[in-house]
Amino acid sequence: MKNLLYLSIFAALFFSSCDCTNSFDGTVVDENGHPMKDVNVHYLIDGKIQDQTVTDSAGKFTVTKISGICNPLDNDIVLTKKGYASLILNEHDEIQKAGHAKYKDTVVLKPSTESFSAETLLELSSVHNFFNFFNIIVLVVNGFSIIYIFLVRERKEYWWVILFAIINPVITLNLDSDSVSWKFIGIVADPNFTNRPWIINICVPIIAIIFWIRIKYLKKKEK
Predict the structure, then answer these.
(1) Are 131 and 210 contained in the same domain?
(2) Whole-model pTM?
(3) First CA to last CA across the chain, in angstroms?
(4) Are residues 127 and 89 in the same domain?
(5) SS3 state at 90
């Protein structure tokens, strides 16, 4: 009982000590170095909007969010303004470049006809979450197929497991940079998740499709 009490006290102290304020400060200017007013600033933690503001007449902004555990790896700042290209800054990367705990620097927005908005980010989050769920389904199908091979198929079929384990093509769409990339080889337990809604990963279960079409064909042949 005493050990349980000590454990509870330790856990409370640990999580309270991890509770901290994540903040991000900066100044937004145009290509000529002039401060930009009314730039929309969205602070995303794990892909969800946690705080938002607009720049003042000096182009300055501050976004703050109290979170349970300080981890800026998945914290992003999205800057948008009509007529200018949206800019996405990863807090961890910017802090690393600045070399101090709170990022304070000047950000330049460039003219463009396309830009993210809060509504667009939320729409992207829905699409992003759908494909994350789809990738989980692919992972489950691959796992089930491997179990099926070990339990039902003969030993000569075991080579399929190697294909399931390493060949998992993933198409990556980066809607921020309008780029498309892909990789052909990936382990079965790595659907390549990301918390950034503008980056969408689509895992293609090509081996599972081929395997189950083959199983269906063999069963028809046996009949």
Answers:
(1) yes
(2) 0.57
(3) 64
(4) no
(5) strand
